[in-house]
Design brief:
Layout: E1 7-13, E2 16-22, H1 27-46, H2 53-103
Antiparallel strand pairs: 1-2
Helix pairs in contact: 1-2
């Protein structure tokens, strides 16, 4: 049985470094995510009264989760509208085909 290969990746958040093991193919995504998180933490830190790292991490997690859920809700609504639109088109096509078959 092959054991998945993982390598430690150094991630910097604010002024702290974290080593996280990940598969080589996940490295770029993990670094991108850490960069995004670092920028968000710095934005929140600029608007807060000297929060601790832990408090800043929690505030950032809540902020990012809120954004994610809002985007997911928006995406689900768009997907539902697309699905409804496709169902309506399918019904029209079925009706047109049925009508054409009856004329023959």
């Amino acid at each position: 049985m092959n054991t998945p290969v993982s390598e430690p990746v150094a991630l910097r958040l604010i002024d702290r470094e974290f080593l996280i093991a990940c598969a080589p193919e996940e490295r770029a995504g993990l670094l991108e995510a850490a960069g995004f998180l670092d920028r968000k933490m710095r934005e929140l830190r600029a608007n807060a009264k000297a929060p601790s790292f832990e408090r800043l991490a929690v505030l950032t997690a809540i902020s990012v989760t809120h954004e994610f859920l809002a985007l997911r809700k928006q995406h689900d609504g768009q997907e539902r509208r697309l699905s409804d639109g496709l169902a309506a088109l399918r019904s029209k096509l079925d009706a047109a085909l049925d009508s054409d078959l009856l004329k023959r």
